[in-house]
Design brief:
By secondary structure, the chain is α/β, with parallel strands linked by helices. The chain is 18% helix and 36% strand. It is built from six helices and 16 strands. The radius of gyration is 18 Å and the shape is globular. It binds flavin-adenine dinucleotide.
C-alpha cells in the first residue's frame, strides 16, 4: 500500500456528471488487483477525509491508473474541476479484491460479471484479468446504466456484453436483473457458475436469491461510507455471517470490500 502524490494525466466527462480520471501512479498500478480501490484526497484542508474510488483499470507497464467517478457531493465536485497536471494525494491499493482463482476451477463452466451504475468501472479491470487468465472460459458481462452507456465498448474484447438501461437508451429497457432474467441465464441447475457483482443493494439481493436456487457462487463488492479506508477507524461496518452462523459487524474497507455473496446480510 502506498501513500503518495500522483499526477492527473487526463480528465474527461464520459456522461453528465460521470468523469474518467487517469493518474500517473506507477506503484499502485503495479500492485493493483481487480476489486481494490484507492483513497483520493481533496486538495482542500477543510475536506480531511479521503474519497474511496474503485480501480477501473491499471496499466503496470505505463504506470497508469484509471478511475471513474460520479459527482455526488463536495469532494467529487472538486475532483471534477482538476485539470491534467494537477497533483493529488492518493493511498492504495486498498481492500482485498475479487478472487480470480475461483473462476479458473475446472468444474466452473461460466463466469458472470454484473455491474450496476458506478459498480461497473471495477468490473472492467476484472473482465480483462479473467479473460487473460482463462481465455477459454465463457464470460458474460451484464451492465446496468441509467441511460446511455459510458464504458460499454471497453468490455467487448473480454466477453459477451449485455447492457440494460432504465430508459431504454441502449440495450434492454429495465435494470440489469431484469435483463438477466429475460436472457434466462440461469436455467441449468447443474452448471456451476461464478458470479462477480458490484452495484446497488437491490441488485445484489436479487443475485443472492438466485444463488440459493442454482449452483452458483457469488462475490459482492460492497460500498459503505468510509473513514480511514484501512481498518483503523471502524467507520464502515457491514453485517456478515460468520462460519459458526453468528452475524457480526465487520469493516468493509479492510476485510472487504469483496465478500462471498452468501455471507452478506443486507438490511
Ligand atoms: C470501496 C468503495 C469504492 C467506491 N468506488 C467508487 C467508484 O469507482 N466510483 C464512484 O463514483 N464512487 C465510488 N464510491 C463512492 C464514493 O466513495 C463516494 O461517491 C464519494 O466518496 C463521495 O464523496 P463526496 O465528497 O463527493 O460526497 P459527500 O457526500 O460530500 O461526502 C462526504 C463524506 O462521505 C463519504 N462518502 C459519501 N458517499 C460515500 C459512499 N457512497 N461510499 C463511501 N464514502 C462515501 C465521502 O468519502 C466523504 O468523506 C466507492 C465507495 C467505496 C466505499
Amino acid at each position: 500500500m502506498f501513500y503518495d502524490e500522483v499526477k492527473i494525466l487526463e480528465q474527461k466527462e464520459l456522461a453528465p456528471g460521470i468523469w474518467q480520471m487517469e493518474l500517473e501512479a506507477p506503484e499502485v498500478a503495479r500492485q493493483a488487483k481487480p476489486g481494490q480501490f484507492v483513497n483520493l484526497y481533496v486538495n482542500d484542508p477543510s475536506m480531511l477525509l479521503p474519497r474511496p474510488i474503485s480501480i477501473c483499470e491499471a496499466d503496470p507497464e505505463k504506470g497508469i491508473l484509471t478511475l471513474i467517478y460520479a459527482v455526488v457531493g463536495k469532494g467529487t465536485e472538486v475532483f471534477a474541476t482538476y485539470e491534467a497536471g494537477t497533483m493529488l494525494r492518493l493511498m492504495g491499493p486498498l481492500g482485498n479484491g475479487f478472487p480470480l482463482e475461483r473462476g479458473g476451477e475446472e468444474d466452473v463452466r461460466e463466469l458472470f460479471l454484473v455491474g450496476g451504475g458506478l459498480g461497473i468501472p471495477p468490473m472492467l479491470f476484472l473482465a480483462r484479468k479473467l479473460h487473460e487468465k482463462y481465455p477459454e472460459k465463457p464470460i458474460r458481462i451484464f451492465n446496468g446504466f441509467r441511460s446511455t452507456p459510458w464504458i460499454e465498448e471497453a468490455f467487448y474484447p473480454y466477453g459477451e456484453v449485455f447492457s440494460a438501461s432504465d430508459d431504454g437508451a441502449s440495450g434492454f429497457m429495465g435494470n440489469v436483473i431484469d435483463a438477466m432474467e429475460y436472457k434466462r441465464i440461469f436455467t441449468d441447475e447443474k452448471i456451476k457458475a461464478v458470479l462477480y457483482a458490484c452495484g446497488p443493494i437491490p441488485m445484489m439481493k436479487a443475485i443472492q436469491n438466485w444463488q440459493t436456487a442454482y449452483n452458483m457462487e457469488s462475490w459482492f463488492s460492497l460500498e459503505e461510507r468510509m473513514g480511514c479506508g484501512f481498518g483503523a477507524c471502524a467507520g464502515c461496518p457491514a453485517n456478515l455471517r460468520m462460519p459458526d452462523g453468528s452475524i457480526m459487524k465487520k469493516g468493509v474497507c479492510k476485510l472487504g470490500p469483496v465478500f462471498p455473496g452468501e455471507d452478506v446480510i443486507f438490511q
